[in-house]
Amino acid sequence: MRQFLLFVVLIALLAGCGPKVSEEKPGLCVPYDLQILPDHEKLTVVWKNDCATLISGYNIFIGAGREADKPFNTTVYPGDTNPDDGVVQFEANGLANGVRYFVSVRTVFPDQTESALSEPVLAACGVREEIALSVRYKSQQDGYSFEEAEYVRANDLANDLYYLHKDGKDYLGSPARLDGFLRGSKFAGLDVSGEYELIWNKLSRAVEGSLKDRIAVGTNQWIRLETADGANAFMKVLGFSGEGADRQIKLFVAYSSVRGEVVL
After folding, report:
1. pLDDT tens track for 8-63
2. What are the domain boundaries of the chain?
3. Which of 104, 52, 48, 110 is nearest to 79 (CA)?
4. First to last CA, the chain
5. 3-state secondary structure string, 18-81?
6. pLDDT of residue 12
7. How far apart are CA 89 and CA 91, in angstroms?
8. Which CATH class is domain 18-123?
9. Distance separating alpha carbons of residues 90 and 44, to the nearest angstrom
10. What's the distance, CA 36 to chain centroid?
11. Reported pTM
């Protein structure tokens, strides 16, 4: 019996030497300037930390619909391959498109205590790709479904937009203009310029005109498309090629299937 009690005491003492994961150092080395680069079923999380104290790494918290209570990473993330630039990057895979994720980061210290959480950022995964649309009815690639992330015909029930070249001008239009039974998309030009990676956090706050079912477009223009079910796509016109029936428009597309709000 005495040996058993000594064994229990020893186990208790050993347990007391474990990591203090619940302890927080709120004013020390809190990650800041958190940014999220969404893609298809993944989020790339980028933040800054100019901490002068020795650290072990980071815990990244990603919660669906609310702030997470445990890290997304199963082991402490040591940081990326360039720790001297003060910018850290983490790629979170295996997420779902169209879900509102709350993302934040804690610094982890050698004694396994943690900093306070960074300011949480709201983001959603979604398709990020380049597409090329032919003039309506001129090829198999004259329409595109954002939800299915694939080309469809301009008069397909899943189509979200078509391309038209008329009287020397280029237009994107709602399929409902072709047939009232098709999806009714709406368009607005945005008062922004630049590459997506540099301006993604400005797109949802950009000044926009009234939403229309057809819009004239030009190279380097950014456009917001609201789908028939309330999701949003942001598109940059990359350019045009060909003439007549062979003419195409090339677009960069950033799509979020979150309904009723703009989340990128």
Report:
1. 334 444 443 433 444 777 778 999 999 888 888 899 999 998 888 899 999 999 99
2. 18-123, 128-256
3. 48
4. 63
5. CCCCCCEECCCCCCEEEEEEEECCEEEEEEECCCCCCCCEEEEEEEECCCCCCCCCCCCECCCC
6. 42
7. 7
8. mainly beta
9. 6
10. 6
11. 0.72
